[in-house]
Amino acid sequence: MINILSAILILAGVFFYLAGSIGLLRLPDLYSRLHALTKADNLGLGLLIAGLALHSQDLLIMLKLLLIWLAVLAASATSAHLIARQAHRQEKVS
Amino acid sequence: MNPVSLLVFDALLLLSIVGLAWASLATSDIRRGVILFMAFGLVLAVAWGRLLAPDVALAEAAIGAGLSGALLLAAAHTQPRPLPPESTNTPRNHGAVGVVLRWAVTLLCTALAGTLAWALLHVFSSTPHDMLPGAISANLAASGVSNPVTAVLLNFRAYDTLLEMAVLLTAVLGIFTLGQANPGYQPAGPVFDGLVRWLVPVLILTAGYLLWVGAHAPGGAFQAGAMLAAAGVVLRLAGRTRIGLPEGFMLRLVMAAGVGLFLLVGLTLLILGRPFLGYPQAWAGTLILMIETAAMLSIAATLVLAFLGGRPEATGVKAAANRQCEEIPRC
Amino acid sequence: MTELFLLSALGLMLSLFLGLLRVLLGPGIGDRMLATQLIGTAGVGMLLLLSVLLKQPALLDVALLLALLAGVAAAAFTGQQQTHHD
Questions:
Q1: Where in chain C are the domains?
Q2: Has residue B318 got a pLDDT over 50?
Q3: How many CB atoms lie within 10 A of CB B177?
Q4: pLDDT per residue over A10-28, tens digit each?
Q5: Nearest CA in chain B to C2
Q6: Which of A51, A82, B58, C23 has a Cα-to-Cα distance from B217 of 20 to 30 A?
Q7: Over the stretch B254-299, which tens digit does the pLDDT of each residue have?
Q8: Which residues in chain B (108-167) have CB-CB distances under 8 A to chain C?
């Protein structure tokens, strides 16, 4: 039962990763690509981590996975903000 | 585990590594090259993980993913940029000399690659007479740690690590001859500042964790030092003036701590009648931890100073006083 | 179960490849920076899967390091240096 749930979560995670990457390739400009990447990618990683946490059934590993996910969330959000601000600044100059 | 899927995974990994390496060297724009090199480091960390070398993967993740991009960019920023970004100018050939030089370099690289390939084939085809893993596992219990990598680095081959620390110290002295550090960064906005506020303590904690866990699992002084350095670099990027780097005498003490403690331990053991760096078995674990702590601090200071690009300016002195045109390269 | 993990790792590798295309193509520096973030996140995911597949719990630590340092790169690229003359 746990295995089935974990498998579903992991597959859903990979699906969102691929969706985000396809969005990265097909969307027209930087700002929309930022949207696709930051949202879909982190959701994919979150689902992947949830599936792995269920699979491992070890408290320490679950906590480490939770820390990884929180760190990636914060870093991705900040990076997206910094990249968008930099691009906006360069647009204003040119 | 399906071998075909694993093969496909490995092939794709290999393709991306080679492709990124080629692309990062083939561009003419420095910043593009640095980004490609950072991506190369990220994929390389995954590759080390795939090759079951977690210690190297940790080091690659700490240095290649975070610090190398910042270090290379800090170096690139101080160069004048005559070309517009994303330009497609190719470097000028100097006529016949250029062509000969290119062919010579190509032949040398091909010869080197060929020699390496021949050596690898020789190793894999001949009967294994490599006694190293056996020797290590036989002596691991007497080394004071249970991680074989740490045992080799800090006990069996401690002399090599001492020389490596000396190389790092020489590098820092070289950095000091470059003059004053690069100018600082503008204070960060609320988003990045918020990230820094929790990231730096977590980085410091992770550094301590890696140092401690290096005794019985992948980790160690180098990875821990790189994490501390990342904390300092992040503080610097957020526009802080105080980045955790000690000043004056304390800075020199920290810089010399790695080599210094190593030498102190080695010479003390020599005086006590044991071989140089031959730890007594009961003390081995403690001595290794002490040396690793000093090494971690030295490595962190070295990397942060490399990012700063010179002597750190003293905090508390007015910025204008430091910017006077006495140091000609900085004007 | 291991088969599923391997297939997921392949899926993440495909995602990384698509990101590579964006790194190599992307018209601006921001697009390349963005794609590097994708490579970083995909790398974290792959390391997590590999740690279960290859039975190496240390790879979780590698993923943690990648996650913590993911923000440093973007900050290094977008940091504004103070000019010499105040």
A1: 2-71
A2: no
A3: 8
A4: 999 999 999 999 988 888 8
A5: B1
A6: A51
A7: 999 999 999 999 999 999 988 888 888 888 889 999 999 999 999 9
A8: none
Rounded to a whole number of angstroms, the distance from the CA of A16 to the nearest CA of chain C is 10
**Cα angle: C61, vertex C66, C70; to 5 degrees:** 150
- Domain assignment of residue B210, given as a range: 147-315+326-331
| Residues of chain B numbered 16-75 and touching chain C (CB < 8 Å) | 16, 19-20, 23, 31-32, 35-36, 38-39, 42-43, 45-46, 49-50, 52, 54-55, 57-58, 61-62, 65-67, 69-70, 73-74
Nearest to B29 by CA among C50, C24, C75: C24
In a domain, B160, yes or no: yes
CA separation, residue B246 to residues A10, B167, B199, C68 (Å) = 46, 21, 20, 24
The 10s digit of each residue's pLDDT in B165-206 is: 999 999 999 988 888 888 888 888 899 999 999 999 999 999
Asked if B199 and A74 come within 8 Å (Cβ–Cβ), the reply is yes
Residue B156 located in a structural domain: yes
Number of domains in chain B: 1
- B84: Cα separation from own chain's centroid: 31
- Whole-structure pTM value: 0.87
- Give the domain ranges of chain A: 2-93
Q: For residue A54, what are the CA distances in angstroms to A10, B124, B215?
A: 10, 40, 29
- Mean pLDDT (chain B) is 85
ipTM of the complex: 0.93
pLDDT band at C74 (very low <50, low <70, confident <90, very high): confident
CB atoms within 10 A of CB B135: 11
Residue A5 sits at the chain B interface (C-beta within 8 Å): no
Helices and strands in chain C, H and E counts: 3, 0
How much is the average pLDDT of B131-143? Answer: 83
Cα→Cα distances C79→B39, B183, B187, B189, C76, Å: 19, 12, 9, 11, 5
Q: Is residue B46 a contact partner of residue C43, using CB atoms and an 8 Å limit?
A: yes
